[in-house]
């Protein structure tokens, strides 16, 4: 009985075409393996492209400063070095499913302005998005409170109430919530605000959602500013307290040396006499 190769050669002769060269023939098993490898490579490429798109979407929805990365962070003081070490441990812990499922975790960054608190919080968030596709939301507390207050304007025509409810639901659902400027310029929050924030944190606790809170207050001042009910909700979390005490990393506004020093300014704001 003629082999498949012989049949192909005979068919080529009958059609007036040259017989295929010996090295052009590929048996079925080899051909199938080649097609499977090609298909797997295409699937992997599609998966990589899909993951990249998901990660880009997560970064876009997070409202994080793109410059807040560990690569852009200068570790020039002991407090920053320690904070980065704690941050990396927090990130690495996400590899353990049992750690993620056991409860809610809170990182509390406190210290004066310009110490790098927001930068490190943002760096944590960026890395969690890249490595684990964690959903992240960065918000300044004062912005959310303003939106909340405006939502009580029942005569407004811009659907402010609906916008606030949608924003509040985002705060509840996101995997990692970063609340910055907590109690900034506030010695104590209003009672209804304390209750709202306390309830938000407690609901996230129940749903095993993690938080990063950033404040310029020390812990005693923060407890007073948040009120007991709200501050007690922080204690329910597995909390990592990180104090920033190094020098400010923000450049100052230098006086213009060309200006005459004997000129008295016409207006001096915030002067107490």
Automatic annotation (TrEMBL):
It comes from Alteromonas pelagimontana. The keyword Transmembrane does not apply. This is ATP-binding protein. The keyword Nucleotide-binding applies. Residues 247-273 are annotated as: Disordered. GO terms for molecular function: ATP binding. The lineage of its organism: Bacteria, Pseudomonadati, Pseudomonadota, Gammaproteobacteria, Alteromonadales. InterPro entries: IstB_ATP-bd, P-loop_NTPase. PANTHER family: ATP-BINDING PROTEIN RV3427C IN INSERTION SEQUENCE-RELATED, CHROMOSOMAL REPLICATION INITIATOR PROTEIN DNAA. GO terms for biological process: DNA replication. It comes from the Bacteria. Keywords: ATP-binding, Nucleotide-binding. Residues 85-227 form the IstB-like ATP-binding domain.
């Amino acid at each position: 009985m003629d082999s498949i190769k012989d049949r192909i050669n005979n068919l080529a002769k009958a059609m007036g075409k040259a017989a295929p060269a010996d090295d052009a023939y590929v048996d079925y098993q080899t051909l199938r393996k080649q097609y499977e490898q090609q298909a797997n490579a295409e699937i992997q490429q599609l998966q990589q492209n899909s993951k990249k798109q998901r990660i880009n979407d997560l970064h876009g929805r997070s409202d994080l400063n793109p410059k807040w990365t560990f690569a852009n962070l200068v570790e020039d003081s002991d407090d920053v070095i320690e904070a980065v070490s704690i941050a990396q441990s927090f990130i690495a812990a996400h590899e353990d499913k049992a750690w993620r499922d056991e409860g809610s975790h809170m990182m509390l960054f406190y210290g004066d302005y310009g110490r790098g608190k927001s930068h490190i919080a943002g760096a944590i968030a960026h890395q969690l998005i890249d490595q684990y596709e964690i959903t992240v939301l960065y918000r300044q507390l004062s912005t959310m409170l303003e939106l909340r207050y405006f939502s009580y304007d029942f005569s407004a025509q811009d659907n402010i109430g609906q916008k606030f409810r949608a924003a509040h639901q985002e705060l509840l659902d996101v995997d990692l919530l970063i609340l910055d400027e907590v109690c900034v310029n506030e010695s104590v929050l209003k009672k209804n605000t304390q209750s709202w924030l306390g309830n938000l944190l407690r609901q996230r606790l129940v749903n095993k959602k993690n938080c990063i809170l950033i404040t310029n207050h020390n812990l005693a001042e923060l407890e007073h500013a948040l009120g007991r009910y709200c501050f007690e909700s922080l204690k329910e979390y597995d909390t990592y307290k990180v104090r920033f005490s190094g020098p400010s990393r923000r450049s100052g506004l230098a006086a213009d040396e060309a200006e005459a020093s004997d000129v008295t300014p016409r207006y001096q704001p915030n002067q107490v006499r």
